[in-house]
Amino acid sequence: MPEQHDGPTADEKGLILITGGAGYIGSHTVVALHEAGYRCVVLDNLANSSSSVLGGIAKIIGTTPDFVEADVADTHTLDQVFESRRIDAVIHLAGLKSVGESVSSPLDYYSVNLESTLSLLRSMHRFECHTLLFSSSAAVYAPGQESPITETAAIQPTSPYGRSKQMIEQILVDTAASDDRWRVGLLRCFNPVGTHPSGSIGESPGSKPNNLMPSVMDVAAGRGETLRLFGDDYPTPDGTCIRDYIHVMDIARGIVAGLQRVRAMTGTRVWNLGTGRGTSVRELVSAAEEATGVEIPTSVTDRRPGDQPVAIAAIGRAQHELSWDAEHDVATMCDDHWRWHRLHAAPATTASPP
Ligand SMILES: NC(=O)c1ccc[n+]([C@@H]2O[C@H](COP(=O)([O-])OP(=O)(O)OC[C@H]3O[C@@H](n4cnc5c(N)ncnc54)[C@H](O)[C@@H]3O)[C@@H](O)[C@H]2O)c1
């Protein structure tokens, strides 16, 4: 039988296991959890992050988080984590996240994202921890949805990455339906950018940029000659795609708000996390030029298959049910990201948005 541990004391909110907690969203969430009064244990295999992130977190919160270097699919180690600690809830962020890479390596995406989730659910169930918040993605929505996109919009992902998220959502819905002890929150995150304002944590310095903001910052820093824009003939005011960019600290606070809500409910609930505002690629580039003081040359190439002209989150449900709202504007996102990038980013080899 699993060993029992004492629960949180009256002045604690509990111990949270955060998978992928050394990553971009994870490290910021560890900070937000600490600020909200939670203790946490980070589990990460460092596939897309580095243990130096723990030092960055410590600079901000004054203590190094409890860290386990392991793969979530390593059920044996996961069991040991649950056995040695009384985990109250899990925030599951670990996984592979590049849409483009998922098209060329679908088996990696299905294998890593699905196997880690199944392993996690089994361990949680064995140790009677049934509260889970999962970072899903706007990539699950069907193409052609009218923005703002509500949580009830059609689901039809167009990439193996998005489909792995959809499959995990379904696994979680089915699992929660099988046993009413489960409390499961699904957060469909839109486009996180920015970093903690201290400049101590940000995006993995070792990773090649796949998203727009790191690519913009690379060009601003002189690490690429031009920023490639994938199409400027979309039916939008300036012809470039419009996305819902949200400051990663707003995402992190949204995750904490989701955790609080999910602990007080049963079953499954889904929330979008975005700002409800759209910014075009060209508008983001202009904001980045303002923040960096550097002109960012662009060149236009063909559209990428699957890119939607506009994707903006409907955030009414998250605002009302989570008592949460995004606070930061695009200018702050660019200022913060630039501070981090100047201090930490490794030389890049390519620049490829968004
Ligand atoms: N960044 C985005 O644009 C975005 C948007 C929507 C949803 N999400 C989702 O949010 C989550 C976190 O995204 P992120 O941007 O912080 O990514 P990230 O790559 O920075 O962080 C993921 C972390 O998980 C770790 N990891 C990967 N596979 C693992 C495994 N099997 N076991 C243990 N650790 C593992 C990596 O080392 C990394 O530290 C992902 O699930 C991603 O799909 C991200």
Describe the structure using short key phrases.
354 residues; alpha/beta; 11 helices; binds nicotinamide-adenine-dinucleotide; 17% strand; single chain; Rossmann fold; 2 domains; UDP-galactose 4-epimerase, domain 1; disordered C terminus
Summarize, please.
With 354 residues, the protein is of the alpha/beta class. Helix content is 38%, strand content 17%. The protein is globular and about 55 Å long.
Question: What's the structural blueprint in terms of helices and strands?
Answer:
Elements: E1 15-19, H1 24-35, E2 39-44, H2 52-61, E3 66-69, H3 75-84, E4 89-92, H4 99-104, H5 106-126, E5 131-137, H6 160-178, E6 183-189, E7 191-193, H7 212-220, E8 227-230, E9 242-243, E10 245-247, H8 248-262, E11 267-273, E12 279-280, H9 281-292, E13 298-301, E14 310-311, H10 316-322, H11 330-344
Parallel strand pairs: 1-2, 1-4, 2-3, 4-5, 5-6, 6-11, 7-10, 8-13, 9-14
Antiparallel strand pairs: 9-12
Bound molecules: nicotinamide-adenine-dinucleotide (NAD).
Low-confidence stretches: 6-11, 348-354
Radius of gyration using CA atoms only: 20 Å
Q: Please work out how many helical segments DSSP would assign.
A: 11
Given this structure, which CATH class of the largest domain is correct? Alpha Beta
CATH topology of the largest domain: Rossmann fold
The global form is: globular
Number of strands: 14
Mean pLDDT: 93
Q: Write down the secondary-structure element order.
A: EHEHEHEHHEHEEHEEEHEEHEEHH
End-to-end distance, in Å?
A: 49 Å
Secondary-structure-derived class: alpha/beta
The percentage helix is 25-40%
CATH architecture of the largest domain: 3-Layer(aba) Sandwich
Residue share in β-strands: 15-25%
